[in-house]
Amino acid sequence: MSDETKPKKPSRQQVYTLLVQIGRxxxxxxxxxxxxxxxxxxxSGIDEAEAVRETVAILKQAETAxxxxxxxxxxxEREEEGHKIDxxxxxxxxxxxxxxxxxxxxxxxFYD
Length: 112
Prior knowledge:
- The chain has helices at about 50-60, 75-80, 85-100; strands at about 15-25, 35-45, 65-75, 100-110.
- By secondary structure, the protein is of the alpha+beta class.
- Strands 3-1-2-4 form a 4-stranded antiparallel β-sheet.
- The protein is globular.
- The N and C termini lie far apart (about 65 Å).
- The mean pLDDT is about 90.
């Protein structure tokens, strides 16, 4: 059976909403007086643990210092919990899924 005739398995990838707190590190790109930041990310993965691992790895490659990750679940899980999810957020989630990537949707710097 050739590759062309095999039915393609549906992807098990899902998109997870993650809140990542980062500390300061030389070259991190944060504003000068910031002490760190919170990043709202949409990350694809087979499960939340994989999405977290991939997100942390990418943020480390980007010369940031991830300190803590809080998972808020998939789109379906968030809707079940009553979260309001606007069209822009849905589009970014779909992009993360389509590109099998991590999308940083929002960055909020922390100041003392």
